[in-house]
Design brief:
alpha+beta, three-stranded antiparallel β-sheet, 5 helices, 26% helix
């Protein structure tokens, strides 16, 4: 099922779809995609953030930064590099350290990764766009991997897309990101470590969603089935709004 034009509907309709999609991703991760010892939770508080999906590991939260939990599982980057459109690397020593904003889960289990699906509310003001970009950088600074899914085109508060905002914070620069004009939607996976490896896909409305890597350690990852979970979430939408987002039904005037 190709990616829809979500600008056809208001933020409330996307929010309903978003909730269902997050739950399906969380279920897929817990139903055998995550290695033994890992589990995913949906919309849990972690420090000062509320991400869509948290991936946790049943090991002490005080484990060494960037260390690999026992029996990490997943795919090794060295053996099977993620198949993406573009890869970038950023020196993590550039990050402004804010040690008081450690991201931990209240269960005491180690927070490994965060998945965030961008919503219209993240783009409606400069402050909210900046807050999401800061959330990503704070997570990476704490050694937590981050997967960003942005199915909305750039707007006035993220003129180069959300990865552009995050990249500027990582680089501590105002340099614009060269977002492809014909593929303005962005999927970005960030592997935290001594340096930050970034795996990027840019797509357009009508494209299929590729699998994206979700990192468990700097050198190991699993592929998240974005396309199949997206399809299932779309099928469960009310028929009227599914027709609207598919362009088969006009909104009432």
């Amino acid at each position: 099922m190709p990616v829809h034009d979500w600008t056809r509907v208001d933020a409330g309709i996307f929010h309903d779809f978003h909730v269902g999609w997050v739950w399906l991703i969380r279920t897929a991760l817990n139903d055998g995609l995550l290695p033994d010892g890992y589990y995913a939770l949906a919309e849990q508080h972690a420090g000062q953030t509320v991400p869509d999906v948290l991936t946790l590991h049943a090991s002490p939260a005080a484990a060494a930064r960037w260390s690999e939990p026992p029996g990490a599982g997943g795919l090794a980057v060295a053996d099977a590099p993620p198949r993406v459109y573009r890869q970038e690397t950023v020196d993590s020593s550039l990050l402004a350290r804010r040690r008081t904003v450690a991201i931990r889960h209240v269960s005491g289990h180690r927070l490994v990764a965060v998945l965030e699906i961008v919503s219209p509310a993240n783009k409606d003001r400069t402050a909210t766009a900046a807050a999401l970009a800061a959330k990503a950088v704070d997570a990476l600074d704490a050694g937590v991997h981050f997967l960003l899914v942005d199915l909305f085109p750039p707007g006035p508060h993220d003129p180069y897309g959300f990865h552009g905002l995050i990249r500027q914070r990582l680089d501590q620069s105002d340099e614009p990101y060269d977002l492809p004009v014909d593929r303005p939607l962005t999927l970005a996976s960030y592997a935290a470590g001594p340096h930050i490896d970034i795996y990027l896909e840019h797509i357009a409305v009508g494209d299929d969603l590729p699998q994206m890597p979700l990192f468990l350690s700097p050198g190991r990852y699993i592929n998240v089935p974005l396309e199949t979970t997206y399809q299932s979430a779309c099928r469960s939408m009310p028929a009227f709004w599914r027709d609207v987002v598919e362009g088969q039904q006009a909104l009432p005037q």
